[in-house]
Specification:
The protein is mainly beta and 149 residues long. It is 10% helix and 34% strand. The strands form 2 sheets. It has a 4-stranded mixed sheet. A 4-stranded antiparallel sheet has the order 2-3-8-7, with no helix packed on it.
């Protein structure tokens, strides 16, 4: 009996970093029904990311995006249909409520979101403040020590 262990669930719910201890915990809590709606997490450059959620049948007013404590939550719920005299012979387009959560790494900000052709695009950007960036310190051999006793 061989068990194949896939790391894919670990990287589905995180954007911008690869911290295994948090990711393992997230993968263990991952419910089997959390694959609706399908989505992609794309990297478009060193500091640019995009989450694409397949939101067929949803309109802008049916979707909500929220960032709180480093977690991006995308939720959606279909409102009641406006036409009362509709009976379905076949209803294959899923319009059930959903909630997706993505843990964002430090300095990842949501820059834009748009709904087009049934796809919700959420653009993310890593914006590292100057004080958090690495600084190169010059070494001057002829300089006297700054501290004197």
């Amino acid at each position: 009996m061989t068990n194949a262990f896939s790391l894919a669930p670990l990287f589905r719910s995180s954007v911008g970093f690869d911290r295994f201890n948090d990711l393992f915990e997230t993968a263990l809590r991952n419910e089997p029904g959390s694959s609706y709606p399908p989505y992609n997490v794309e990297k478009h450059g060193d500091d640019q990311y995009r989450i694409v959620v397949a939101a067929a049948g949803f309109q802008e007013e049916d979707l909500e995006l929220q960032v709180e404590k480093g977690v991006l939550t995308v939720s959606g719920g279909k409102r009641e249909p406006k036409t009362e005299n509709v009976s379905y012979l076949h209803q294959g387009i899923a319009q059930r409520a959903f909630k997706l959560s993505f843990r964002l790494a430090d300095h990842i900000e949501v820059k834009a979101a748009g709904l087009s052709n049934g796809l919700l695009n959420i653009d993310l950007l890593r914006v590292v403040p100057e004080e958090a960036k690495a600084k190169r310190i010059p070494i001057n051999g002829a300089q006297k020590p700054a501290l004197q006793h």
